[in-house]
Amino acid sequence: MDYQEILDTIALELTTKQPRGNVATYIPELAKVSPQKFGMHLHCINSGHYCFGNSDEKFSIQSISKVFGLTLAMSLIHEDLFERVDVEPSGNPFNSLIQLEYENGIPRNPFINAGALVISDILISTLKSPKQEFLQFVQNITDNDTLKINVEVFESEKKCSYRNAALLHLMKSFGNITNDIEEVLDFYIYQCAIEMSCKELATAFMVYANRGAKLSSHEEVISPHKVKRINAIMQTCGFYDEAGEFSFRVGLPGKSGVGGGIAAIHPNQYAVTVWSPLLNPKGNSELGMYALERLTTLTGLSIF
Ligand code: DON
Q1: Which SS3 state, helix, strand or coil, does residue 105 take?
Q2: Which CATH number fits domain 3-299: 3.40.50.720, 3.20.20.140, 3.40.710.10, 1.10.530.10?
Q3: Confidence (pTM)
Q4: Relative to the CA of 282, which ligand 1 atom is closest?
């Protein structure tokens, strides 16, 4: 199959589409990103790299970092993490407070904000230098020790993190947050502020396509048994109240972020990433979802 030709077809189709959606504005620094940006990178296990557009430009990975946080926690902790966070789709927006009150402070899954805040709390209790060790983990799976956070995005989110603070207070009232609220919030926002390009993100996500091992060195980052579970949570919960729609249209496990990025994988075949900052009302990249839908349609390679 000529993957570059398929990507070029998608690039051409995108030029005919009217840009729809809005850049995220609730984190003021993200509102400064040009809505015209579009990048796509496909990394196939057997045949290498294909890309187009702004695929080498860095963007804020935001909630895509929740996959890395969960992976690090699951690689370190052997007792059951899933007593403090469930694995059910939420059917609610990523920053919703409603279910948490009904469900006694146990988040529906690790990929909504409440769930990632619990994972951050667990990592703080487990790691000596959480920020440094988290960054090193992402650098390792990306084979790039220059990766860093965008300080402006980090500071910008810190100034307006009212809902995440509310989620933490509510969960602490139920006894599901053990560390200091400010410390957990700070670490969570740090993870979201990491910047990566589509190419770097596709390299990192190869771990999920390649049974938990890095493709470059074959180092096992997480066991195949655990990566199977992470991929299952991406499939059912990676897109909040649009997880069904993403499954229906694209048919891959994936994760989105309000920076406009999406990373998705086909086990044993490929990792693919897209970046387009205009978000639909559910907070997922409008054109990013379109491009991935076209990829799995034109290649015939979805998991279904
Ligand atoms: O906590 C937040 O609201 C952001 N730092 C991340 C949210 C996000 O990326 C949701 N994804 N689509």
Answers
A1: coil
A2: 3.40.710.10
A3: 0.98
A4: 12
